[in-house]
Predict the 3D structure of the following.
Amino acid sequence: MMDIRPAISTEITEVKKEGNSLLLISEKGMLRLQPLTAESIRISYTESDFRNGQGCLLKNVSFSDWSYEVRDEEVLVRFPGKLLALSRKNGSLKAGTVEENKKTIIFSTDETSPFLLESYDFYKTSKNSEIRTEQIRTPDGVKSRIIGRETEYDETLYRTRVNFRFTENEHIIGLGQSEDGLYDFRGTTQYLHQANRKIAIPFFISSNGYGFLSTTEGPALFNDTASGSYFMTEADEYLDFVLILAKSPKHIIREYRTITGKAAMLPKWAFGYVQSVERYESQEEILTTAAEFEKRGIPLDLIVLDWMSWEDGLWGQKTFDASRFPDPEAMVNTLHDGHVHFMMSIWPNMTSACENYKEMKENDCILPGTEIYDAFSPSGRFLYNKQLLELAKYGVDSWWCDSSEPCTPEWGRRMAPDETSMYYNYIDECSKCMPLKKANAYGRYHAEGMNDGLRAYRKEKRVVNLTRNGYVGSQQHGTILWSGDTSASWDTLRKQIAAGLNFVAAGHPYWTLDIGAFFVKYAMPWFWNGDYPEGLRDPGFRELYVRWFEYGVFLPIFRAHGTDVRREPWAFEFPDDPSYNALKKSIELRYRLLPYIYSLAGSCYTEDGNLMTTVSTEFPDDEKAWTVSEQFMFGPSLMICPIVKSGESGLFTEATRTVYFPEGTDWYDFETMKKYTGRTETVVGAAIDRIPVFVKAGAIIPVQSPKLHAEDQTGEDIELLIYPGADGRFTLYEDACEGYGYETGDFAVTKITHKADSREIEIRTEGNTAYRKGALIPTFIEE
């Protein structure tokens, strides 16, 4: 028979303040409120006690200007302009704003069952017992999978659940990066686990004016269907989340960074063009490729060495194969002499035959039943950095951390799994080899360890870590996230736009992708499903690549990469084909916009901003803007509208798309200067060598004559393109382009304002004025 027990009362019978926390106690459990800032409050619920491990990714911040009042039916918590009301019946919560005595509720839990917990005992793999494994060949190397093990009790964990009460027209964005092309997650189920083409971040933004951040580090699930609206975690010590009450997405993201860490600045060269392919095989090939860019007059700032820097058979070993890379230091120095930087691929998994693995194994720093180092362990991170310095000593500028999930069971299957089975397969596989309560955060710990080690080794260079996975707080550690091994099709290109926008809405400013997709051709298994078996010989792929490339110009990081075909611009040079010239023009446009782009990067640190944002981030009061998923803002002034289909009259001909122009401003075509009115929708066209880009009225866009490298443009004159129709302002950011002086204020900001009617311009430089070199030359754009 089922064991039926009497219900335990949820009525709050005691309310008390302890330190900066407010405790609401019932027979069933305890609710804890901790104000973190004037706009963020941490809310926790337990039916046992509050252990110390939960929420360790949060910064140690606290806010004391708050008060509370206990009433017969509710407990009120007030802090400036904000009000929380908690029912004494069960702790259900309503939160909102107070302006001129007007209360507006913007967030509500379910009134009958707001918070749920379910306990279970977690059993880990016993390291001292026999672990049976099988070898699985994947694109990420040969990996071990546990098929038999003995377990031992580890700890009691909880599945937790917050039940929401969404409003009818509420929109939800964020939650990291998915590949399904969804933009607004209302009416959907989202499985938050890590995968090759998925980055789970338990943070979302509501159009009602709040952000929700779960402190879980394990798998989680967002649901808004007929079965309920809730956020559920799989492996926590107690229920725990941060509620951010702010007036706009910009302010919500600023709060997110306040409580999880500021985004690190990347060096200026990282915002130039990045050339990569699977793969350059030798020192000679890398130097020859860089020289070809110089010869053809095509800008380049970074060239990338993909996997297999090591000797054959030693996957993951952090040394160079001397037969193909006889003098790595000379190779890097030659690149540096030409103002080109060098990135190389490194992996968390290492074959058992290599010395790196043996050292890790001897020091008990390998996850059980795998060849993957234990990034959760301080000693594992220390050893990984010790090994990494054997490469850093050659002057390597940046790192490509591939497979940083690192558990991707879906990648070992022949057929595509459905989302539900992927999620539970991930939980099962992670439970066998790592702490499930931290499984989603492996990439974050991996990046943190590298950042700490590399900064200690060479303080003069900013850490640049291109990684396939990250988590809450990864933005502190010099990381750039990319969307994994996608497949070439127009549908994939379209879906990548929403993927990138939801990723940056989840708090991290630096995102990119494989331009043209990683897989071009079709093969087995399921993920190798590009639409172009003829590769570069198919003009249809070349057209797709050009459109993808043009979109890539306006991403935070501009990077070409993939397999099946070459990715250098001259690989697309065919008779009577416009591809090569269009690619070269796109790269030059990126470098023309470099003062604008680097200023946006500066604002990511100084103002907790983003380079790429949703249209709704800039126009939160425009209801329609919350539904726009295939265009985006690049900074405050440029609206980017990628072309996601072939030409109307055949390959390489003009293509059209519908563009929505947000309300409250006029817009100008960046190339033709045609004017569009806000709050309208129009079909626009673009020739093969451009995509539609629109400038907000009154914008100030700093540009330069493009040169071959970002370094070559530093200190040169800057033209200020000043658009009509409204007053405008822009903050130009300049610094040493490298190093960490910016953290102590060693940079210059030049504040530029103009008045549309009088054309009066004011320019004021603050900070280290030594960085303000070259003339600022205003150019008024005529209608």
